[in-house]
Amino acid sequence: MNTKNHTIFELNMSDDYVIRSPKRDYEIPDTSVGAFVAKVLAQLDSQTKCIVNAIDGSQLTVKGLTTKCQSIAWALIKRGITKSDTILTFAENSTELAVVMFAAMFLGVTLYPITPIANVYELDQLMDTLGPLFVFTSTAKSAVIENIISKRMNERQMVRFVSVLDNNHNIYVPYERLLDEGSDHTLDAIPYFAVKPKKDIAILMQSSGTSGVPKSVMISHK
């Protein structure tokens, strides 16, 4: 079919033109990400190395990851985190960052990992689209968070809590303190908060931002 200078080819699609894998279809379970991850971790040898930081050589075994996730999650519960809060991470890659991400899954709250190369303007624009936040950052990035908080002191939408993943900080709560606060505690259930897999948002992902300010993509548990 010709339309002016353009040619359009019509093709009746059928199974003859569909490439299929010889493997059986995988049915996505109707469960939360946290419950799925916890189940998989429980099936592994507790001493299996599951996270390795190629930069500094730090690593975590399955047992180490699970124990620290439980501790961080418990400490956040004690500090008042709720189902409606979002855990936002703004830090360089580290084993500590990985623990926080898994802790968010165990809790059943929404996780929003922000690239560490984001600037104040990009983060500030995101704040208008988000609800209450529990923020995990690094010492190097903490000034950006402080800048945003100081600009929004009189707004109802507020960063409720900030933790620094590395070293001590004179303003924000050190990650190690959270580990101490939650040590020897385990969650009664995973996820801790009730989750509707098809409806609730497990993670918010940032687009590349090549066409403007990065956009948020909502991904449910299922």
From TrEMBL:
AMP-dependent synthetase/ligase domain boundaries: 53-222
Gene Ontology molecular function terms on file: CoA-ligase activity
Cellular component terms per the entry's GO annotation: peroxisome
Highest taxon above the source species: Eukaryota
InterPro entries the record matches: AMP-binding_CS, AMP-dep_synth/lig_dom, ANL_N_sf
Location in or out of the cell: Peroxisome
Pfam families per record: AMP-binding (PF00501)
Keywords, sorted A to Z: Ligase, Membrane, Peroxisome, Transmembrane, Transmembrane helix
Sequence intervals crossing the membrane: 97-118, 130-149
Family of the protein in this entry: Belongs to the ATP-dependent AMP-binding enzyme family.
PANTHER family referenced in this protein's UniProt entry, alphabetically: AMP-BINDING DOMAIN-CONTAINING PROTEIN-RELATED, LONG-CHAIN-FATTY-ACID--COA LIGASE
Protein name listed in UniProt: AMP-dependent synthetase/ligase domain-containing protein
Organism: Oppiella nova
